[in-house]
Task: inverse folding
């Protein structure tokens, strides 16, 4: 396996967009929602990341993309925005290698750790992160309900309940 930083002229952008589309579909399934997101949307998203303060790393096995990590650099802090590995390659240290890059980049800023966004019901990712020492809840992001939005699940953090 090889991990490379992606740039705007990279040959892997189309494949990366396919991986990102798979990632979005898996997230929608976690939330039990229908995804209205196309390959064109994924390509636009990748393009926007590459034009902004993000770094994208892609894991490749025999020239086949098998995973990626998207890092946002903000105020000398590294945020791991997305980490995705295709199902057949999971549990083969791909995610661990991508996580190590995020932590190395945090170290480049003199920080001890990257910060990671994860959906509360993404138990596989939460267990993976805990196994790698990530077990400190750093923040809670909240918003108002969208018009006509119906949410049937909730989660509790401490004394607080949130729709999810």
Result:
């Amino acid at each position: 396996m090889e991990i490379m930083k992606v740039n705007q002229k990279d040959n892997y952008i189309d494949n990366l967009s396919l991986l990102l589309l798979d990632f979005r579909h898996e997230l929608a399934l976690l939330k039990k929602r229908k995804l209205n997101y196309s390959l064109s949307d994924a390509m636009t998203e990748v393009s926007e990341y590459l034009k902004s303060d993000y770094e994208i790393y892609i894991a490749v096995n025999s020239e086949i993309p098998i995973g990626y990590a998207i890092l946002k650099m903000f105020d000398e802090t590294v945020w791991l925005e997305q980490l995705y590995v295709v199902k057949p390659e999971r549990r083969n240290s791909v995610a661990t290698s991508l996580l190590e890059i995020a932590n190395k980049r945090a170290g480049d800023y003199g920080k001890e750790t990257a910060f990671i966004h994860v959906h509360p019901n993404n138990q596989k990712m939460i267990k993976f992160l805990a196994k790698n020492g990530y077990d400190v809840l750093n923040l809670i992001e909240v918003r108002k309900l969208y018009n006509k939005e119906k949410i049937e699940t909730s989660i509790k953090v401490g004394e607080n309940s949130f729709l999810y």
Summary: The CA atoms of residues 124 and 145 lie 27 Å apart. The mean pLDDT is 90. The first helix runs from residue 13 to 30. The first strand starts at residue 2 and ends at 6.
